[in-house]
Design goal:
Length: 326
């Protein structure tokens, strides 16, 4: 097993680049067969990845529960003591529940996830979307689950700084998982600074902008018709892909200079910029997964980072997803 540079998330130390596992179940068209997916996850572990992200809702077409957790559980059961697993729950029907009932419902969903993941605890348990549910009540429930030893820490996803602060005051957060990349930078204003100040890991999902920043997507790219989120990502409409090509070309220039790939440069950029950032790029392709993990070996000098940042700041981004929507 390769050893990757590490960062902290709560009381857990993990590889500085993690792996989002969603694509094996949802979001990028036709899914691989289960054995391929299991092998891809284990191969990521062999290449130094020790942080794996899933969710109860990740299933084909978002129908049903637990497809992805089952795969992750099978892939990691033999190395469970050497990896950190994060999963998430959706607060369906929880908004009007009183505190005690909310705790029981969250705990029930957690136990179901633990069974699918073949483990007796998860390292990070996220509220996937707030959905009108009180973050303070969720934070209180999460504190009880931490005390029970069922979760190592907890987190929020797709939230603003006000929600983060209100939750953190009740039960300290280990992580915040929001969308963040070179073309989704709104979190730089308040969210990431708050997380740094309060010792909270910031976990970017879609750090390569659903493949846009890999350099492999062009205005002529056709996405799959079924269960492919790229059909809805604002930066990936035909006209916006064309408008965002200068950013992709900038990444290609730096990639050539560093003997790297555009995806590795965009990940190296955020790793250099923030010491509390742990990106979780996802892919259903074994080769792309290994490529993404290799970003940990790409180090930008201060001059390279400053130059890249200055050039990036001069380029317009076409399309914005933000906290809304999916």
């Amino acid at each position: 097993m390769n050893i990757m540079k590490q960062r902290n998330i709560g009381n857990t130390t993990v590889s500085e680049v993690g792996m989002g596992c969603m694509a094996f179940s949802h979001g990028y068209g036709r899914i691989p067969d289960e054995q391929y997916s299991i092998e891809a996850i284990r191969n990521a572990y062999d290449h130094g990845c020790t942080f794996f992200d899933t969710a109860e809702v990740y299933s084909p077409g978002l129908s049903g529960r637990g497809h992805n957790e089952l795969i992750v559980g099978k892939a990691l059961k033999d190395v469970r003591n050497h990896v950190a697993i994060a999963t998430k729950f959706m607060p369906s029907g929880m908004a009007s529940l009183p505190g005690g009932s909310l705790y029981k419902k969250i705990r029930k969903q957690l136990i179901a996830s633990l069974e699918r993941l073949q483990t007796d605890y998860v390292d990070i348990y996220y509220l996937h979307r707030t959905g009108g549910t009180s973050v303070e009540k969720v934070a209180e429930a999460m504190g009880r689950l931490i005390d029970e030893g069922l979760i190592g820490g907890w987190g929020l996803s797709q939230v603003d700084v006000d929600e983060i602060d209100r939750a953190h005051q009740v039960t300290p957060l280990a992580a915040v998982q929001n969308i963040y990349s070179m073309v989704e930078r709104y979190c730089e204003a308040e969210v990431i600074p708050y997380c740094r100040e309060h010792g909270i890991a910031f976990v970017p999902f879609s750090p390569i902008a659903s493949g846009l920043l890999s350099g492999k997507i062009t205005p002529a790219t056709q996405f799959e018709s079924y269960d492919d989120v790229r059909n809805w990502v604002p930066q990936l409409s035909g006209r916006n892909i064309e408008g965002n090509m200068p950013i992709v070309e900038l990444l290609k220039d730096y990639a050539d200079q560093k003997d790297a790939t555009p995806a590795q440069i965009t990940l190296a950029w955020m790793l250099h910029k923030y010491p509390n950032v742990i990106p979780i790029p996802g892919s259903k392709n074994k080769e792309r997964i290994v490529e993404n993990l290799g970003a940990s070996d790409v180090e930008l000098t201060e001059d390279e980072f400053r130059s890249l940042e200055e050039e990036l700041n001069e380029l317009k981004v076409y399309g914005h997803r933000g906290l809304g929507g999916f």
